Amino acid sequence: MSTNTPPAPGRPSPRPTPRLSPAFHRFWAGSLSSNLADGIMLTALPMLAAALTNDPLAVAGLTAARYLPWLLFGLLAGALVDRVDRVRAMVAANLLRAAAITALAILTATGNATVTTLYIVMFAAMTCEIVYDTAGRAILPALARTALDRANGRLVGGREVAQEFAGAPLGGFLFAIAAALPLATNAGAYALGALILLGLPLTARRAPAPPTDQPATPPADPVRAVLHDIGQGLRHIHTDPPLRALILFGATLNLGAAAVTAVFVLTVQDHYGVPPHLFGVFLATAALGAIGGALLAGNTAHRIGRYRGITAGYLAQAAFCTLFALAPDAPTAAAAWTLVAAASAYGTVLSSGILQQIVPEHLMGRVSSAKQMLGLGLAPAGALLGGLLARADLRAPALFGAAVFTAATLLALRHLRTATARADANEQAARADPAH
């Protein structure tokens, strides 16, 4: 899409509520099935690890296996999905995940599963997840270019329902019956998601050709060609200040969020006195808030404008995070945390839509993977900082997070204004294009 800077943004001109296509709904259905599988897997594998060993470090190793693939293969996956049929990449990723989980189910049923096996399966499944997620973000503009905020709202809300409300409890329930049962169900949900995606239209499958004003020819050698593609994506980010600021803004928010969530369980249980058997209820209220915030963003962004929405969302997140830290009791803290989750989801939906509108489609995979890599790269530093602050006071990480959310939003205002203006202009141009 064009990235010409339009006039400063104000309230968008009134327009009908954007409609989502049947192709998007097929894509959403496939995502829901995969999200259900994610929720089952991320519940069943830690439970299986705890059944195999009582070593906390060994169990914690699953978390490292979960995030390590992003740091190793994130940029490579971005270059891949900008070169291949994105639907086939998503289908292949789901089928490979299904195969890995099926193998683990067989090993578990026969009593041959080990903690090392769990690491290998988690690493393999999350490597496939990188390809699936990156391709999904890249394909979305082709399915919902004129309704990206509603589409992102549906995806985020659907993910919370399928993963947190359905997948996580189902994984725990099935594990109580038989350890291999959630794994078999998990594999089936991944396979179903792959089958649903096969029906997506050809127009959404491949990245469009680069504009004619970018004639650079990649090297013939495959390795050098991939490095060329990765470099092209990184150069695009570097030479586009608003886009670069949007990505750094998201990474900084992740640092603050990681500081808060790293000791969240201790804050809730030790400071607010919530018993362990009610901790899940505390988390469920936050999931409800995230669903509400995601759906609200998708349905209201075209009325109040992305710039107003994203700034209000993240400043509200800071305010509610402060309220969570200073809450006088557990019910007030739960209500505040629900609002934190709602504001975070609201801002996430809008920032995703902005990025998808201003990044050229042939670079979408590389830019989105770089964004994810940077965000996840700062998260461990935020978690460590949160742990250090919590040694002084369990409320300190939440106050630190609130300060980070506020400072990051205020410092990014100028670039957020420019980026949202470009996104609005590109969306209006897409509405005027008969092809959309």
TrEMBL record:
Its main location: membrane. It is found in: Cell membrane. The keyword Transport applies. Pfam families: MFS_3. Residues 243-436 form the Major facilitator superfamily (MFS) profile domain. It comes from the Bacteria. PROSITE patterns: MFS. The keyword Secreted does not apply. Keywords: Cell membrane, Membrane, Transmembrane, Transmembrane helix, Transport. It is a multi-pass membrane protein. The chain crosses the membrane at residues 64-82, 94-113, 245-266, 278-297, 309-327, 333-352, 373-390, 396-413. InterPro entries: MFS_dom (IPR020846), MFS_trans_sf (IPR036259), TM_effector (IPR010290). This is MFS transporter. It comes from Streptomonospora nanhaiensis.
